[in-house]
């Protein structure tokens, strides 16, 4: 059997989760493919159609933003729906969400977007790892290690359920209230996030890492200026991965010694 997971990961948590799932599936003697939806991956329409047709089950994995799906994954799911049309028969579909403190509406929203396509949600897990938003708190490595251990257990179990064709929709109920509260406010902040981003000319080395790695192609250089545009999905990748900490938010140059950057669970 072949399991293909389309994923978006701003800073590495979701990539870690899907890689672990792929390892478990392969250890159990099946095929697992991971497909990034970053703009840089340049997925072609035909390629997406073929992946959906050729896979026995399809997964969608992403971080939770404001109790919801990040705009980049929402746009991708809409694209998939437009491309595949109603499938001739039902195909098992799984969703993996990673989050820092409150999960919430990820699976319901995905289910709504998939409605009528034949991609039927049979499994959902959320994996709590850590926040990737700017913070002056050092990363609690011990806590993260425990969460990764729990996450591994959950992903191993998910692999078993997928292979056995068993349903597993788990872990989004109790947090719906918190999700409902943040969900009202965050989408607008995400949509406008690009307006808060900038580059500190004094610390930037013009290495272009931010431009090359932006998953939505929302950063460009114009003369001496860096321009951030509205396709930004607020993933924090540019901020966290700039080698000199030169990306500013609201004009603030956050000193990396005081505001440690987050570069994924294995960094
Ligand atoms: C814009 C934004 C909004 C977020 N909103 C939430 C949230 O509502 N609940 C939560 O638990 N974590 C939230 N987070 C944290 C991420 O979901 C979490 O760190 C995730 O595991 C990051 O995955 P990634 O490393 O694959 O990008 C948010 C992160 C960002 C960048
Ligand atoms: S990654 Fe940082 S140092 Fe490199 S070009 Fe972007 S802002 Fe400048
Ligand atoms: S501009 Fe920065 S925060 Fe926005 S999508 Fe690109 S890398 Fe992510």
UniProtKB/TrEMBL annotation:
Gene3D superfamilies the record matches: 3.30.70.20, 3.40.50.360
PROSITE patterns assigned: 4FE4S_FER_1, 4FE4S_FER_2, FLAVODOXIN_LIKE
Classification via Pfam families: Fer4_9
PANTHER family, per database record: ADENYLYLSULFATE REDUCTASE, BETA SUBUNIT (PTHR43687), BLR5484 PROTEIN (PTHR43687:SF4)
UniProt keyword annotation of Metal-binding present: yes
GO molecular function: 4 iron, 4 sulfur cluster binding; FMN binding; metal ion binding; oxidoreductase activity, acting on NAD(P)H
Residues of the 4Fe-4S ferredoxin-type domain: 195-224, 227-252
Sorted UniProt keywords: 4Fe-4S, Iron, Iron-sulfur, Metal-binding
Protein name listed in UniProt: Uncharacterized protein
């Amino acid at each position: 059997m072949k399991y293909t997971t389309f994923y978006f990961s701003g800073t590495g948590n979701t990539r870690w989760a899907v890689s672990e799932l792929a390892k478990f599936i392969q250890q159990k003697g099946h095929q697992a493919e991971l497909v990034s939806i970053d703009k840089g991956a340049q997925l072609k329409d035909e390629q997406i159609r073929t992946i959906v047709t050729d896979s026995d089950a399809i997964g969608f994995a992403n971080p939770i933003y404001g109790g919801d799906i990040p705009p980049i994954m929402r746009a991708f799911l809409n694209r998939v729906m437009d491309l595949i049309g109603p499938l001739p028969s039902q195909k098992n579909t799984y969703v993996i969400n990673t989050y820092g403190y409150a999960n919430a509406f990820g699976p319901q929203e995905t289910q709504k977007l998939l409605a009528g396509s034949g991609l039927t949600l049979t499994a959902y897990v959320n994996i709590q790892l850590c926040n990737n938003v700017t913070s002056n708190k050092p990363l609690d490595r011990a806590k993260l290690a425990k969460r990764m251990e729990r996450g591994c257990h959950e992903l191993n179990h998910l692999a078993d359920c997928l292979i056995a064709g068993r349903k597993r929709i788990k872990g989004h109920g109790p947090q719906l209230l918190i999700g409902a509260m943040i969900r009202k406010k965050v989408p607008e902040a995400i949509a406008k996030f690009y307006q808060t981003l900038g580059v500190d000319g004094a610390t930037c080395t013009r290495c272009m890492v931010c431009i090359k790695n932006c998953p939505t192609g929302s950063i460009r250089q114009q003369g001496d200026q860096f321009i951030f545009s509205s396709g930004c999905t607020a993933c924090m990748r540019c901020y966290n991965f700039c080698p000199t900490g030169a990306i500013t938010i609201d004009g603030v140059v956050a000193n990396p010694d005081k505001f440690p950057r987050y570069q994924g669970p294995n960094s």
